[in-house]
Amino acid sequence: MDFLLGGCAATCAGFFSNPFDVIKTRQQLHGELLQRNGQTPSPGSGASSTTTNPYSSVIRSFRSILRSEGVLGLQKGLVSALAFQFAMNSVRLGIYQTAENCEWTRGDTPAGTLLRSIAWGGLSGVVGSTIACPLYMVKTQIQARSHGKYAVGYQHRHTSTLDALTGIYRTHGIRGLWRGYPGIVTRTAIGSSAQLATFSTCKDLFSQFDWARESVAITAFAASMVSGFFTCVFMSPFDVIATRLFNQGVDANGRGLLYRSVVDCFTKTLRAEGLHGLYKGFVPNYWRIAPHTILNLTFWDQFKAWRDLYYG
Asked: Rounded CA gap, 22 and 140, in Å?
C-alpha cells in the first residue's frame, strides 16, 4: 500500500509541475556547450551561436512556448512524465516509508537520524530511478522538441511515449533504453537524499509546535517548502547533466555524440559555460521542485492519514 500511495501522490503532483519541467528542460539545453563570450560552439555540440534566447526567463519561456506550440506545448511529454513519476516514486517513497516503519532511519542522536535518512533517501532514489530510467529519457526528449528558433539541443522525432520506447528498443536494444543511466542515478540519489532527509527532519522539528500537531497537511506543507529549496540547490547541477546526457544524439553504435559519461558532461559544461551552465534552469527548476515537493509529499502524508483513518 505504501508503494501505491507514493506513486499516486507523485502523479497528482506531476500534472501541476510539468509546465515548469518543460521550461527547465529548454533552458538547460539552450546554448549547450556554447562559450559564454559568444564564441563558436564546441565542435559537434550542435549549439547555436545566435544571441537571441527565447528561454532567457520563466516569463519569456512561457510566451515562447505558447507562441510556437500553443497551450498544449506547456504540457509536452505529460504522459511519459506522469508514468515516470508513478514508476519512480512508488518505489522510492515505498522503500523509504518501509525503512521509516521499521525505524531504520532512526539513529541514537539527531545527527545519526539525519545521516540514516540521507542514506535511505539516496538508496530509495537509486532503486526508483533504475526502474524508471527509460521513461525519464523519453520525457526529456519529447519536452525538448520544438521547431525553428525555439528548438534547443538535439531534436528527436518521437510522436508519443510508446513510439519513443519502441523506436529506441528497435534501434538500440534494451541497452538503449538505459542510455544515460548514470546521469539519472546521480541526480536522483542527490535529490532524493536532500528531499526526504530534510522533509523528515523538518516534520520532526515542526511537530514540537501546537500548530503543526493540529494538521497533517499544514505540517507537510511547511516541511515541503524547506525540503524543496534544499533539493533544488543540491540537485540542479546533476539535473542539467542528466538532461543533456539523455537528450544528446547517438551514433550507429548507440554512443553519445557529445558526452561519454557524467564526468565528461560535467567537465565540458563547466569548461564551456562556467558554473552558470551547471545551474541553467535553476529558477524554473525551483518552481518545479518546490510545488512538486509540496504537493507530492503533502499528498503522500494526507493519503497515509486517510489510509490509517479508514483501514487502521
From this structure: 8
- Does 301 reside within a domain? no
At residue 164, what is the residue type?
A
pLDDT tens, residue by residue, 129-154: 999 999 999 999 999 999 999 999 99
Determine the Cα–Cα distance for residues 112 and 245; give it in Å rounded to an integer: 35
250 strand-pairing partners: 256
Residue 235 in domain: yes
- Residue spans of alpha helices (H) in 30-109: 58-69, 78-101
Those residues with Cβ within 8 angstroms of residue 258's Cβ, 6 or more apart along the chain or in another chain: 32, 33, 44, 45, 46, 244, 248, 249, 265, 268
Domain region containing 188: 1-33+57-295
CA torsion sign, 4 to 10 to 11 to 12? positive
Question: Cα–Cα distance between 145 and 269 in angstroms, integer?
Answer: 21
Report how many domains make up the chain: 1
Q: Flag whether 2 is in a domain.
A: yes
What's the CATH code of the domain at 107? 1.50.40.10
Q: Cβ neighbours of residue 296 under 8 Å, at least 6 residues apart?
A: 9, 10, 12, 13, 89, 224
- Condensed to tens digits (0 to 9), the pLDDT of residues 75-99 reads 999 999 999 999 998 898 889 889 9
User: How far is 230 from 114, CA to CA, in rounded Å?
Assistant: 14
Q: CA distances (Å), 289 to each of 146, 232, 281, 283, in order?
A: 23, 7, 12, 10
